[in-house]
Automatic annotation (TrEMBL):
InterPro entries: ATP-dep_DNA_Helicase, ERCC3_RAD25_C, Helicase/UvrB_N, Helicase_ATP-bd, Helicase_C-like, P-loop_NTPase, XPB/Ssl2, XPB/Ssl2_N
Start and end residues of each stretch annotated as Disordered: 662-709
EC identifiers of the protein: 5.6.2.4
UniProt name for this protein: DNA 3'-5' helicase
Length: 724
């Protein structure tokens, strides 16, 4: 009769299935997010999996083996299998029991288990790092204070409440005071280690299955300058943001880790609130210069950081290289490629980097933290001295399987939100995902089948006339509704052909200057007459365009799940209530019977696992079988043939996708003779090394021999190219 009070099915293979329609589903979700990783979360049944990393994250939040078993038994319909119980016991026996705490400018290794510290000191790398002269353990009480978070009611919820458990540890103690149960032992044992050997201790302990946790006792840090900054009165923290912060600041300390929230759900405000709570110097690392500028504006919007006239928010980018007073607390915002560049820098940039390396940062915020797993950008974490790290992302996935490295570089996953829950509560937009199957034009499909070059085949299905007609039709339809539209293309040749040659629309890509990007994006937001913008993959991350409610994707990066979710995130900002269920639209245009179909299916897996469903429509459902009725541009054989001729005449490199924005270092550099001689050459900001053809250097790119028997329109097209 009471089956609805037990919403979980816990399987021996560590899979857990949740009935999301249960009355206690929300409590169960909070608990499962703390101990397991979500696999798929559609509308009614959610699937989770308990893993070694998820139990490590649970232990880092203070959950004991007994707490995990108690929670599962309380919510599960079935009895727990012995193999599952043994797995949880083995993985939590050591995890979360050893912490490296920065307290009063000294590092301590502490644990409530004295025998565990004794075993840890038998490891050579740990014993060598112990402060000379110490032989006894320090003993003190574990002071577990609740941190008051600004912008929340009554200082925010407690850590145990955020994990769906009844009360917090202090409340449990109060309940035990009047009972015969023995009081919990809150003694903590510790020993001090040398400051320069923290990484050595972490590595040595990790090799012996002693995963260590990093915590920062910022409230007792009297040696680091304080950052006088408060949230403004209108800054209100949402319930799911409270849960994030409660887990980060559990028991009065700042805990390093990763927070996963959908795009548009307020990750930036979570990071700003964390910086305000710690109140020390903060380094923010973003993906692009545009994102750096947006972080600065958000700090000034949400906080009182610059109200006293001092400019304490400093940008470090290609155009901003200003030094600061190291005796005062500041906020520095830089991009990954500015910090992660390993070559020679210009003089001003090197001076700023020296300041960043020497500065003692209370907090480092890594925006789009999945980027930090790349080998190039590990320098952003390893070359800076930080006391606490916070990673923010919407998509904790990478196709190269390097996400697990983030647990070591940054910390465990602290919280991951449910996208559909936030959508139902109105915190993010309600998006309809639509995949439009576009028939390949016979002329293009014949060329596609004959081509052996994968790059040219890619160009042919991207420039498919049916796809172009659907794109033009959707732009007309949504512009007539007054919508704001972003059209994405990874391929620059496709982007420029759609935007400039055919539709005469604005576009920006990787070679667009930083100033021009900001001007174009600002005009796109403010000008009611500019409702469509074509953009390359530089718009995938950290572009804040709250009024955009339509995405049209005409080309993408193969089967990249993260890119699909990031592009959807550009329209997830809360929108006004619509007369229909949906107030935002995400279109993916796919050429039928090509390899693009396979890539599109794989790309959608992440969003499907979040509970989104794709509606499949055909191009004829939108524009019919005769595009001429709608006055679409590519509705005649002559115009289709002209596009095909342009593809045939295009350089092989035209089919290459644009490089990742975070993978470029655009700082001006110089080359010197071996041995440090005089400079003999320099390179501009936008110069990069890449493969190419000799025709590009000779000026022959895009030219071809003119066949005498070619159609008139084809000969005219080639002659125009030659004259240009």
């Amino acid at each position: 009769q009471d089956h609805q009070d037990y919403p979980l099915w816990v399987c021996p293979n560590r899979r857990i299935y949740l009935e999301s329609y249960s009355p206690v589903a929300q409590q169960a979700k909070d608990f499962l997010i703390a101990i397991a990783n979500p696999v798929t979360r559609p509308r009614h049944i959610h699937e989770y999996k308990i893993t070694s990393y998820s139990l490590y994250a649970a232990s880092s939040l203070g959950l004991r083996f007994e707490d995990i078993l108690s929670g599962l038994n309380r919510l599960s319909k079935n009895e727990l299998h012995d193999s599952l119980i043994n797995f949880i016991h083995d993985k939590t026996e050591k995890a979360g029991k050893v912490r490296i705490v920065l307290r009063r400018n000294s590092y301590f290794v502490e644990s409530p288990n004295k025998k565990m510290l004794e075993e840890l000191l038998k490891i050579e790398g740990v014993a060598d790092a112990r402060k000379p002269g110490e032989t006894e353990f320090l003993v003190h009480s574990d002071d577990q204070r609740k941190v008051a978070i600004q912008g929340t009611k009554d200082g925010g919820m407690g850590q145990m409440e955020a994990m769906g458990l009844k009360g917090d540890m202090k409340e449990d103690e109060e309940e035990n005071e009047g009972s015969n149960k023995p009081k919990l032992d809150r003694r903590v044992y510790s020993f001090e280690i040398m400051q320069g050997k923290v990484e050595q201790v972490k590595e040595a302990a990790k090799d012996r299955d002693f995963p260590t946790l990093e915590e920062y006792d910022y409230q007792n840090d009297k040696t680091t300058p304080n950052l006088n900054m408060n949230l403004r009165a209108f800054a209100q923290i949402r319930p799911y943001q409270e849960r994030c912060l409660a887990k980060m600041f559990g028991f009065g300390r700042a805990r390093s880790g990763i927070i996963v929230l959908p795009c548009g759900a307020g990750k930036t405000l979570v990071g700003i609130t964390a910086a305000q709570t710690i109140g020390k110097s903060t380094l923010v690392v973003a993906t692009t210069d545009v994102a750096v500028n947006q972080w600065k504006k958000q700090f000034e919007h949400w906080t009182t950081i610059n109200d006293n006239g001092e400019k304490r928010v400093i940008m470090f980018s290609r155009e901003h290289k200003r030094a600061w007073d190291t005796s005062k607390a500041v906020i520095v915002i830089a991009s990954y490629h500015m910090l992660g560049h390993g070559g020679q820098r210009e003089k001003e940039a090197e001076k700023i980097m020296q300041l960043i390396r020497k500065h003692e940062w209370g907090l480092i915020i890594l925006d789009e933290v999945h980027v930090a797993a790349a080998k190039t950008f590990r320098r952003c974490v390893s070359e800076t001295y930080s006391r606490c790290k916070l990673g923010l992302t919407a998509t904790l996935v990478r196709e190269d399987k390097m996400v697990d490295d983030l647990h070591y570089l940054v910390g465990p996953k602290l919280y991951e939100a449910n996208w559909l829950d936030l959508q139902d509560q109105g915190y993010i937009a309600c998006v309809q995902c639509i995949e439009v199957k576009c028939r390949m034009d016979p002329l293009f499909y014949k060329e596609y089948l004959m081509q052996k070059s994968m790059r040219r085949r890619q160009l042919l299905y991207e420039m498919n006339p049916s796809k172009f007609n659907v794109c033009e039709y959707l732009i007309r339809y949504h512009e007539a509704r007054g919508d704001k539209i972003l059209v994405f293309s990874d391929n620059r040749f496709t982007l420029e052909t759609y935007a400039r040659t055919l539709l005469n629309k604005f576009f920006i890509h990787g070679d667009t200057s930083h100033t021009e990007r900001l001007v174009t994006l600002d005009r796109f937001q403010r000008d009611d007459k500019l409702n469509t913008l074509f953009i390359s993959k530089i718009g995938d991350n950290s572009i804040d365009l709250p009024d955009v409610n339509v995405i049209i994707q005409i080309s993408s990066h193969f089967a990249a799940r993260r890119q699909e979710a990031q592009r959807l995130g550009r329209i997830l900002r809360p929108k006004p209530v619509s007369s229909s269920r949906f107030n935002a639209f995400f279109y993916t245009l796919v050429s039928s019977d090509t390899t693009e179909v396979k890539y599109a299916t794989k790309r959608q897996r992440f969003l499907v696992d979040q509970g989104y469903a794709y509606r499949i429509v055909r191009d004829e459902d939108l524009i019919g079988t005769d595009p001429k009725k709608h006055g679409l541009q590519l509705s005649t054989p002559a115009k289709k043939a002209s596009i095909l001729a342009k593809i045939r005449a295009a350089d092989e490199m035209a089919a290459l996708e644009e490089e990742e924005e975070v993978g470029l270092d655009r700082t001006k550099q110089t080359r010197r003779r071996k041995g440090g001689g005089k400079r003999w050459g320099s390179f501009g900001r936008n110069v990069r090394r890449r493969a190419g053809n000799a025709s590009d250097m000779s000026g022959g790119s895009g030219m071809a021999y003119r066949p005498n028997n070619a159609p008139r329109f084809f000969r005219d097209h080639i002659m125009r190219n030659a004259r240009n």
